[in-house]
Amino acid sequence: MADLSHAAAKSVTDRLTATLRRVALSEYLVLWLSVIYFLALAPFTPGLVSPENLVNLLVALLPLFLVALGQTFVLITGGIDLSVTSTIALSSVVGASIVNGNNGWLAGQWFAAPVAVLAMLALGAAVGALNGLAITRLRMPPFIVTLTGMMFFSGLAIWFTQSKNIGGLPVAFTRLGGNGWLAGAIALATGAFAHLMLTRSLFGRWLFATGHNARTAYLSGVPVRGVTLAAYVICGFCAALAAVLYTGQAETGSPVLGQRVLLDVIGATIIGGTSLFGGKGKVLWTLCGVLFLKLVDNSLNLLNLSIFTITMVKGGVILFAALLDATRHRLAGSRP
Amino acid sequence: MNAPCALEFSGLAKSFSGVRVLTEVSLTVPAGHTLGLVGENGAGKSTLMNLVAGNLRPDAGEMRLNGVPHAPASSAAAAHAGVAFIHQELNLFPNLSIAENIFLTAFPRLGGTPVIDRSRVHARTAALLTEVGLALAPDTPVERLSTGQCQLVEIAKALSQDARLIILDEPTTSLGAHETATLFALMARLKERGIAMIYISHVLADVLRLCDDLVVLRDGAVVGQGSCNEFTHERLVSLMVGRSLTQFFPERKNRPAVEPVLEVCNLSEPNIVHDISFTLRRGEILGVAGLMGAGRSELARILFGLDPYAAGKIIMEGESLGRITPKQLIGRGLAFLTENRRAEGLCLEASIADNITLVALRDQTRTPFRLLDFNRWREAIATMRRAVRLTARADDAQPVRTLSGGNQQKVVLAKWLLAKPRVLILDEPTRGVDVGAKFELYQLIFELADRGAGILLISSEIEELLGLCDRILVMSRGELRADLPRAEFDREKILQAALPVEEGNA
Amino acid sequence: MKTSWWLERGLRQAPLVLFILILAIFGALAPKFIGVANLVNIGVQAAPAGIVAIGMTFVLLTAGVDLSVGAIMFVGAAVAGKMALNGAPLWLALTAMVGVGAGFGVVNALFITRLRVAAFIVTLALLFVGRGFALWLTQTRAMNLPDAFLQLGSARMAGMPLPLVLFGLVALLAQGVLGRTPFGRQVLAVGHNRESASQAGINTTYVLGAVYLLSGVCAALGGILALGQLGAVTPKFGENYEFKAIAAAVLGGTSLFGGRGAVLPGTVLGALLIQSVENGLVLLNADPYLYPLITSGIIFSAVLLDSVRSFLLERACRRKIRMEAAD
């Protein structure tokens, strides 16, 4: 009798373990977590489900998504880009100084806004190219290259503006970030393009091969250096695109813009499932990671929790996701 | 003399994923004796020694050290029990000094403090270094030492741990004549101190001169055993080669054409290869035999544009190749299956599909945007899976890591075949592959040659070369020693040419 | 042979060469710069980040990283500040601060060695947790501390400023541990290759755990000195110290890939180098906005030199098949 109930209990536990394992091993685990989190908090959080709040949430996550998107490309190659925030700041002030109505280089011209945007994007790509060249040609470690890059370019942005914000931006320019629909369209288009690139293009496949095993990739005829360089250029470009949105949302060009999002960017990307060790990453994963992080941010805000609680919870969330990932690897390793 | 034997094996057996690598090995090494262990590459010598040194655990049988059962759980435990294993790949830390490497886990300290007693470390290291005949300061960083000097440091470390049994695995492969002499003199001194040694080497003359007893391994079993003076050079070679019972080779139909696809003229690179010349013809399987460290893989790496060469010419299909990258060489129809499948042949975590299409990815795309044509992509993968007879049980999306060695190697081969190469360099294509998969790989190699590809086959298994090749080159110490057409194939001739010539004996 | 030896020597001593170069340049431009008073001043200013960097050096030597040091400083300072404002004696507040550092170090160590989460992520997460916690403690307001803290910063010991003495003591002790104890040597072995270190019989879990503990304690000590200079806990306290510390260590020749580096002169020199550049620029009345540009440029060149050196070393160590030149 005791044996029987023991066996029944065992089979229940077995089934439970199997289900847990399936959920834990699902690649969209974070999405499920977000849904559960959302449903669990909705009854207690005033305004969480209100349409305005949901729109706010979506608009707020767009620029972060763009930065994290670029970071995903770099992480897939097994590298890291710490300079994204300074790229955001630098493009923001350069764009603003071209377009602003007070003393901008092209103040009042009808083509000021498009030129400013193009200049910002080109600048982002150039910063990425510098990082990439130092890493591929000078064989320097990505961590330190982009760390000094972070110090240098943010210093450059501050020096360039003498630490002042640049206001007076024309609507034609701020609309890109300020208008939710437009910003959404930009982010969606970029995300879709990146998704296509990662999953269906020759370059995407090369990117993963480089991250999986650069040596094997090189021996198989993959232009490893070119691919790595391109990943950093894309990362810089995406950061600049995010700068366009951030600047538009803030309606000022600021040399400290995005200074605080570095850890959010890396945290969101890793939570989504992209590996720090390369070879793994998806646009949708990153989107889920950003969604989760922003959801936590947003809900804690609505709960009237202070900035410090939010920061702490964010840290806990990152640690939790990392632990989950480590456990997941162990589970996957023990799979029959 | 009935002193307890330093080391006794009885009935040791070991298999790796179903493949037997050791069967019923029994032997004894008395204290103060040196046992010579000989056998071809893959005969099971290294596995046997890894059992003693605690890196592997036996499936059956018993080991006794000085009369006590010896079942080390780790290499550290084996070292503690008095076994020192001096590998071909040395295990020193180049960023530390000689003295630090020797005492890394057993530093003498000042009184009860955690501070290293530097003067004692220095004095004891100096004494050990004198003992092994190394005239270097104890605080010399190990990265400054030559391979031979590192070996002596390893022996000094063994002495510091009071080792009773020292295993030397191919210690002379990368030593010069002078360093070899130093090592042998040291071995004689160790012997006088009653230390038992197991000496593994391909240089049979050295083995016969240095050792008291001999054991010959073939296919994981002892095929000859006895006192050293019962053996001659010739008898050892014939015992090592033996008769292979299980291996057989598919029938070869076509003969190679005369048209050359790859010509190598007087290729040299200081310290690596010297004056190598040969011609590979269309449809020919050209074998390259040699011992470990003979420079075969290094030659392959030079041919594939991975390492530089100082002099000579490489001509492919009539065109001379200068300094050229792997990517360009692949474009010209060259393929290179490296000996290091896991680190250089595969992306282990990536899927079977991604690995198979890695080289010829461009052919699976459609212009204008070079997007993957999934139909063509899937078709290519299916074709290749059939061509290499990859196990049907594995899913295309499964990571390559989960496959067996043989299937992994088929994936690497499929990857290259998809690019339709005209010259293939295969470096140890059947290493770590079970017998059934081996036969299938042999068939694939024949099919390739029949379709007109030139194949350069590097292998440490002489049987394999004899069964597959139209011609065999033999390398030793970076030089070409023999070029044998099929009519002159002879195991002993190949082995003799492969053994390094030491001054005085041949 | 001879030239390559000199080249290697020069590259190995790159930080020292750079340091002398900087002293010479600023000395020529502003003679006050190389006066004793100013040099002592540089040492005092470099002390907080220098001590944090010493702890970081141990972590980097094992091929890890500790991004939580800045947050540890902040939490420690907040706890100590609270205690002091509530009337606790100075020594108790400071002991608590060191305790906070040790506690964070232990948490890092547990996650990294026992749960095997990547050091980068664990310490990144603890950065968030720590900063959030300290912000909560201080209610995101600047907290002015009793004068005892400021006196700590300006106190003298044997004629030298206390921060400088402490910096020197920590550096000597750390170099002693690194160079003269079995633990220190094992740190280098683990950093070179964890697998073979474990095979050689080293308890790698213990070694790895201990370096994160050390880093936490050093962060707290650095925090104490920073408090002594500021006299207040601001919401930005300790921010970016993780990057400053990594920069100082790397500048001093410590490799991010583990196994190579030293506290003395290495990391200490790196910290002094960064501080002298800033100090020199102040004396020259340079545009303060140029500081980060110049500092990052210098760090970049030092790392570039290091990567050139390892490339040359790697090429020199290529395996040889034939012995062409007799020995």
Task: Summarize this structure briefly.
The complex is a heterotrimer of chains A (336), B (506) and C (327). Helix content of chain B is 32%, strand content 25%. With 506 residues, chain B is of the alpha/beta class.
Describe this structure in words.
The complex is a heterotrimer of chains A (336), B (506) and C (327). With 336 residues, chain A is mainly alpha-helical. Helices cover 76% and strands 0% of the residues of chain A. The model of chain A has no long low-confidence stretch (mean pLDDT 88). The two termini of chain B are 35 Å apart. The model of chain B has no long low-confidence stretch (mean pLDDT 86). In chain C, strand 2 and strand 3 form a beta hairpin. In chain C, helix 3 runs parallel beside helix 8 and helix 4 runs antiparallel to helix 5. Helix content of chain C is 75%, strand content 2%. Chain C is built from 14 helices and four strands. With 327 residues, chain C is mostly helical. Chains in contact: A-B, A-C, B-C.
User: Strand arrangement, largest sheet of chain C?
Assistant: 1-4
Strand content of chain A: under 5%
Low-pLDDT segments, ≥5 res of chain A? none
Radius of gyration of chain A, CA atoms, in whole angstroms = 22 Å
How far apart are the termini of chain C?
15 Å
Helix content of chain C: over 70%
Secondary structure: number of strands of chain A: 0
Structural class call of chain A reads mainly alpha
Annotation field: number of helices of chain A? 14
Number of strands of chain C: 4
Distance between the termini of chain A: 31 Å
Secondary-structure element string of chain C: HHHHHHEHEEHHHHEHHH
